[in-house]
Here is the input.
Amino acid sequence: YDRQTYNSPNPVARLAHRARYGIADHLIQKYLEPSGAMLDFGCGDGRMLKRVRMFYPEAHLVGYEPLMKGVADGYERAVVEDDAWARPYNLVTAFEVLEHLEDDEICHFFDLVDKALRPDQRGTLIISVPNMLGPVLIPKIINVQYVRRADWKYSLSEALRAAFFLGAVPRHRGAGYLTHKGFDWRDLRVRLKNRFIIVEERLSPFPFLPWWLNSQWLAVCRRRLGVSR
Here is the structure.
């Protein structure tokens, strides 16, 4: 995972993921209290939580990761979902996770977040997902299919439709979960707005360029208070 993201041998992929980590660092410091509680949903190898521990040594940090192995260095690691959601949180994060979930799994995640965040406007959700539309898709296809030899291949017509016409293409299931292929962050944005208040949005790695020239979309959300579920 580390060589696919933060330390990728592909300089373009490495730039994109390091920029995403930098933006995430900034947002976490902005929205998490120094002694607050944070859950990183799908924490992978725990890199993000280890970074948070460096600038917030008093925070209560929990990482939920049922698939990838890792060492809980400076945070509590949960492999069972009930254990992860057993306490309230000031901040819940899901970085590069929701694109792998089915629609009903995303609804389930939203329900859990809604219950777990503090019952005031200080409870926050931060997510990031990949942009798989626009010209930025071309280097991603090259990196995944020809550099990493992964198995979520686009046909030529699918690549052209998604990259140059911003059109939908079929999703692809890999080893038990959905791959990035066919994911449309705009659909997720609509679903987020139906459940939460989006208070901030970011594009990465080039926030001054249009979304279709960026690799990731990040959103900061708050609960809709006083609305029963």
The mean pLDDT is 90. The chain is about 35% helix and 20% strand. The beta strands are 37-41, 60-64, 76-78, 91-95, 124-130, 196-204, 216-223.
